[in-house]
Design brief:
Number of strands: 9
Structural class: alpha+beta
Largest sheet: 4 strands, antiparallel
Strand content: 15-25%
Helix content: 40-55%
Oligomer: single chain
Number of domains: 2
Strand order of the largest sheet: 3-4-5-6
Length: 172
């Protein structure tokens, strides 16, 4: 159970104890599988592959939705960390949420009101100017030129668009 507090590492018990109570105890304290001796090594390999496949199936979407690495900047929503050019950048929760929204929706155009509704929510009363202010702060933190932005682009009269930087991206 100590391992489960910090990691989601698969745990397989291989034991000479083969009673139902032993198996249920092993699985009950956090084991993913319980194999008794004597065992067939091919079966052990097959069980390991199944557990790893299952773990990969469940973890991949979570990691994909919460980790964005563009080389120039990296956003890790699980740990609420933004790094720009490998330097930690402090952000408010709403700034991180707004950048996460853009990262999830690259190259799509959103009006200010759509962004406000999707990031701040319907039940929040405020001004759409809030979006503009937060985008300006994000641009500054991303070192995106406010006069000629390359990451969060304003399409006049239409809305905003997030253009993911490639690995060779350079901002002034």
């Amino acid at each position: 159970t100590e391992i489960r507090k910090n990691k989601n590492t698969p745990i397989i018990f291989i034991s000479a104890r083969s009673t139902d109570f032993d198996k249920l105890t092993g699985l009950g304290i956090g084991g993913d599988d319980y194999i008794t001796k004597p065992f067939n090594i091919l079966e052990v390999i097959a069980r390991i592959k199944v557990i790893l496949r299952r773990q990969k199936m469940y973890e991949s979407p979570k990691q994909k939705d919460n980790l964005y690495d563009y080389g120039y900047f990296m956003l890790n929503m699980e740990s609420a960390i933004l790094t720009v050019k490998n330097q930690l950048v402090e952000c408010t929760a709403k700034e991180l949420e707004l950048l996460h929204f853009f990262c999830k929706n690259p190259n799509r155009i959103f009006t200010t009101s759509q962004i406000y509704e999707l990031v701040w929510g319907n039940d929040v009363f405020g001004e759409e100017k809030t979006v503009t202010i937060h985008i300006a702060k994000l641009r500054k933190k991303l070192s995106d030129d406010t006069r000629k932005p390359k990451i969060i682009v304003n399409l006049r009269g239409i809305g905003y668009k997030f253009i993911p930087p490639n690995k060779e991206f350079i901002c002034e």
